[in-house]
Amino acid sequence: MAEPTLNEIIPSPEQAAAIASEDAAVIVVASAGSGKTEVVARRVERLLEGQAESHSRVLTVTYTVKAATELRHRLRTRLGSASRRVDTETIHGFAHSLLRQHGTNIGLPAEPELLVRDEDRAELLNRWLDDNGIDAPEDTVDTLRALDLARSTCTTCEFLEEWEQALENAGALDYPGLLSAAERLLEVKSVKRQVARVYEQVIVDEAQNLTAAQYGLLVGLISGSEGELTIPTMLVGDDKQSIVSFAGADPTLMLKFAAEFGARRFDLTANFRSATAIGRTTEAIAAQLGHPNPAGEYAAEGEVAFREAPDEAAEADLVAGWVEGLLSGGLNPSKLAPDETAAIEPEQIAILARSGGALRFVSTALSGRGVEFVSASTTGDWLSSVPGRIAMEIVSLRTSADHRSTHWQLGRLLNVSEDQASTLDALASVLRAHEDPAIAALAPLAEVDRVEDFTRTLADVELPETSTPDESAAWESDLALLDEAWSRFDAEVDRVAVTWGNFKLFCAKQQRGDELAPGVRLLTIHKSQGREFRAVAVVGLNDGQLPDFRATSTEKLTAELRTFYVAISRARRSLLLTRPQSRMTRYGSRASNPSRFLELVR
Fold first, then answer.
1. Secondary structure class of 57 (helix, strand, coil)
2. How far apart are alpha carbons 549 and 595 in whole angstroms?
3. What pLDDT, in 10s, does the model give residues 502-550?
4. pTM, whole model, 2 decimals?
5. Residues facing residue 90 across a β-bridge
6. What is 372-431 written as a DSSP string?
7. N or C: which end of the chain has fewer CB within 10 A?
């Protein structure tokens, strides 16, 4: 069934009032599930229709990349070509885009390096402190988190000045630095005038999660030199749902906006209802994490099922059959609310796994049945083995030999200094001499000159028989993912574009996926965070996969349990949990044990 159009859904009186408001400053306090995204979409449509001849744009800002992607898709589906006049970004994404266009006005490089990994940032801070004769903190990563919080809340703390100097000296930015740099950029009058001409309206979703730094950038964007509102703005959020104060979120900023700009307030109070069975399942995991959260009883009962299959291919076929059944027959009507449709769209179905490799067989099975799908993962979840990640960093080194973040990452993976991994010759020597035979086997990769030969050389690498079954299975999955990425890259690009840099970029796009494309969603669990689907299958529920085989401490196992919690809580009506009884390695099939987490929900 196609998604209803705007004209087919009748807004509630509460929603209609917020949509129709002509006030320049608006806040919408939207309780959970009260249709705030519908309000945003309809308000954008009304604004665009009212300015049909205008070339200016609407900026919609959301809290996460996933939320931005979903809103972008909804607007494109419902508004058609008019959606091209809407920029949908996270606030960090907007800041990054602004800096890439105009950053040279405040002395930034044309393409500043963005440091996203804590390890890279810790390397830079420690190096700067050492070069300037300052003792490094005992725990640099914890110090960086304190710095992030200080910058988010616009307060001060130890090492803040040193960290900002280190970033400036390196010509680099991190995520908090994007905000302060963009706010400085908007103080340049010529840039401010240009941006003001571009946007006729700003809408901020999940506004209860705004930090002081984000609010400062927002005010710099929408107000003039005397503090007057120059771009009409709507904030949408709910202070009852502000759960990220640890990151500096301040729900009172919505009230501050209302006071500073005389905003009119609208309240959305209606809530969608969840499924009882899934609520009970998530409650069981939440209790194990020390956060009991009674699920309650709802009109929709929902369903939770567990299935096993002999191997990964059979598990994938089982899940593909489940998807096919949903698409043809819909959800079980007896498990839904009385007025709820059983029909389900492909985009409302998600298949989740701890790593990208665990989704490989599912993608093959769906392709065999002609089911459209979109795959996406986070950078850290796409490849699951250390040798696979080293291989990808070799591609990065070939792409940009002077990027220190690559040197640092290789140093960490190989347990050597960054200088020992800063050139291909040095890297080849380190690999050949490495005490881990699985890593030593990668040495030929550092000697490959042509990107065309990379995956062929990779396929010849054999891990030693001393590798554990989990390590070997992870390596096999990584090999398949890299080989598939190369095959698609080789088929889609012109010969002149077959370069190391373009292959790296292609791999990054494979990880991100195309959120605008139609189809069932195949996502790593971390990629699914912040989203929800009517039906979810979680695959690969074996010890060694979820929890990951490297999670050997209590702290790491707790983090894995949180990951499992995120996975099962994505489902609204139907949840399927599956596992293969055996996994394939280069040395044959190996038996697998059920995930210990299954005992908590079965």
1. strand
2. 11
3. 888 788 776 666 665 788 999 988 778 767 899 999 999 999 888 988 7
4. 0.55
5. 62
6. -EEEE--HHHH--SHHHHHHHHHHHHHH-TT-HHHHHHHHHHHTS-GGGGSSHHHHHHHH
7. N
